[in-house]
Amino acid sequence: MSFNSIHFPITKSQFLNFTKCVNSFYILNQGLITKQNIQHSGNLEWSEFQDLCRSLFPKAVSIPKSLSKEDQLTETLAAIRERNAIFHGFLENETLSSSIECLVPEPDSSGWVLWDFRSVGSQKQDILRSLYFQKKLLESFQIPVSQIKVIRINSGYVHTSESIDKESYLVIDDVTERIETEKTRFDQEWILFENYKGNPNFPLFMEDFHTCKSPKTCYLDTVCFPDLNRREIFDLREGHDLAKKYYLEGLGSFLEIPEEELTPIQKIQKQSHETGKLYIDFPKMQTYFENVTPKIAFLDFESVNPLLPIFANSRPFQHIPFLFSLHIWDSETDELTHHTYIHEPDGTDPRLFILEHLSKKLQEDITICSFNDFFEKLVIEEATQVYPNFIEWWSTIRPKFIDLALPFKKFWVYHPKQRGKASLKDILPAITDVSHGSLTIKEGQDANYQFLRLLKKHVTDDDKNRVLGDLLRYCEMDTFGLFLIYKKLKNEISISQC
Ligand code: SF4
Predict the structure, then answer these.
(1) Is residue 189 part of a domain?
(2) Which of 16, 20, 21, 33 to mutate to test the pocket of ligand 1 (most atoms within 8 A of CB)?
(3) Ligand 1 centroid vs 239 CA: distance in angstroms?
(4) Within 10 Å of residue 227's Cβ, how many Cβ atoms?
(5) How far is it, in rounded angstroms, from Cα 36 to Cα 226?
(6) I need a surface site. Which of 159, 327, 432, 491 has the fewest CB within 10 A?
(7) Whole-model pTM?
(8) How far is the CA of 21 from the centre of ligand 1 (A)?
(9) Among 181, 208, 236, where does a domain finish?
C-alpha cells in the first residue's frame, strides 16, 4: 500500500478512531471506505431528546447548521465574544474541527462550561475522550474551559404520565474531575496523536497491525487484509492474534496452523473444515434434548426499546415486544402450525395483548425453544410485572425454555459454512438451505427501527401495511428457521443412534 499525507482538519470522530486503531483512522481519513451509515432507532428520537436537554438553557443561541462551516465558525466566535450560551457551536483551526453541543459562560469568571448531550444511560470512555478533544480545540482559541458536564438519560426512570418528566428523566453528570483523573492516559493518547499528525517519520499505517484488535468484526478489514484467498484464517474463533500472525506470514488457511497452537474449539473448527461436514458432539446433544416434550414451540419476539419511553410503566431502553411468531411442532405427528400476533402501532401498550395471545398458545405441556432465550424470558418477565394477572401462568411456563443458541456457543454443533460465527442468520443457511436473504427486513435492529418509525413518524397506510407485512415475514422466518435447525439436529442424533 502506498501512503498519502493525511487530510486536515481532523474531526473528533476521526480522533476517536485514532485512539482505537491507527489504521482505521487512516482508512477513514483518506476515504478509502465510506463510513457505514446504519439506520438505528436512536436517530428517530435524537431531536426529541436534544430538545429536552436544550430546554434547560432557555437563553442559549443556536448556530444554524445550514450555514457554511466558515459562517458557523464566525457566528460561534461572535457569540463567544458576547458571552452568550451557544448550541451547536462550530470551531476549526488548522488541524482540528468539531461541533460543540453546548457552551455556557460561567457567570463569575471568564471560564466556560462545556456541555454534551448524550442519549445513553451511563458514561462511556469515548464520551470523555470526545470532550477532551473539544477542550483542546477550545483552548487553542484561548477559550478557558472551567467545567465539563454531560446530560444523559436516567435508565431507571419509570414513565407514568403523558409527557416525559424531564427532571427525573435527565441526569446531569459533572465529569470535570473524571476527565482530570484520566488525564495521564488522555495526555499520552494526545501526544501520540500530535506525533502522528505532525511528524513526517511517524508511520501512517501500522503494517504489523498491532493496533488491530478485531479484524473479524471490523468493516474496514478488506482494506487491511485484502487477500480474499487467505481471509479464511480470520474465521478462527477467539483467534485474532494467531490469525493476524499467520496472515502476515502468508498462510492461506487455518488448516495449515499446527494443531498444538489451536484451542479445543479451534480444533473442532479445523476438523469440521477438513471434512466439510457438520460437527456434532453427540453425547452433549443427547443430554441437551433429554427433557424435551413431544410438542415444541419455537418462539421469537420483535421489540422496540425507545430511549424516550412511550408506554406507561416502562423505562428508557426497555424492550417492549410488539410482535411474536410461534411455530408449534408436534414431533409425534410431524404437524407444524404457525401463530403470530402483531400490535397495531397506535400508541397503545402492546404488552397486554402479547401476553393474552401468547398465554392461550403456551401451556405447561410444551417445551419452548428460542435463540438466546434470556431475551424472550426477560421480555415476558417484565411484561408480567406490569400485568400481574399473568404471573402464575408465567411461573409454569418459565422452566420450559431451552436455548437453541447454546449448542452453537459451546461448539457442540458447528458447520464450516458458519465461518466461525454463531448467529441465527449465519447458522440457518449453513445447516439448512433456507436463509433470510430474500426478506426486506433481515435484522432485529432494523425490525426495531421500522416499528418505532411507525410509532413516531407520520406514514401512509400503504407504508404502514408494507412494513407490518415485512415484520411478520421476518419474525416468521426466525421461528421457522429455529424449527428447521432443531429438526436437522434431532435427525442427525436419531441417525447416530441407529
Ligand atoms: S481491520 Fe484491524 S487494523 Fe484494519 S481498521 Fe479494522 S481494526 Fe484496524
Answers:
(1) no
(2) 21
(3) 15
(4) 11
(5) 19
(6) 491
(7) 0.94
(8) 6
(9) 181
Cell 429455529, residue located: 482
User: Which ligand 1 atom lies nearest to the CA of residue 224?
Assistant: 4
> How far apart are alpha carbons 103 and 108 in whole angstroms?
15
Number of other CB atoms surrounding residue 168 within 10 Å: 13
Residue owning the nearest CA to atom 5 of ligand 1: 24
Find the domain containing 68 and state its range.
39-181
Tens of each residue's pLDDT in the chain, 498 residues:
778 899 999 999 999 999 999 999 999 999 999 877 777 777 899 999 999 999 999 999 999 999 999 999 999 999 999 999 999 999 999 999 999 999 999 998 999 999 999 999 999 999 999 999 999 999 999 999 999 999 999 999 999 978 999 999 999 999 999 999 999 999 999 999 999 998 888 889 998 898 898 788 899 999 999 888 888 888 998 888 888 888 899 887 888 889 999 999 999 999 999 999 999 999 999 999 999 999 999 999 999 999 999 999 999 999 999 999 999 999 999 999 999 999 999 999 999 999 999 999 998 889 999 999 999 999 999 999 999 999 999 999 999 999 999 999 999 999 999 999 999 999 999 999 999 999 999 999 999 999 999 999 999 999 999 999 999 999 999 999 999 999 999 999 988 877
CATH code for position 359? 3.30.420.10
Residues 234 and 243: beta-carbon distance below 8 Å: yes
- Same-domain status, 261 and 329: no
Q: How far apart (Å, rounded) are the C-alpha atoms in residues 415 and 443?
A: 22
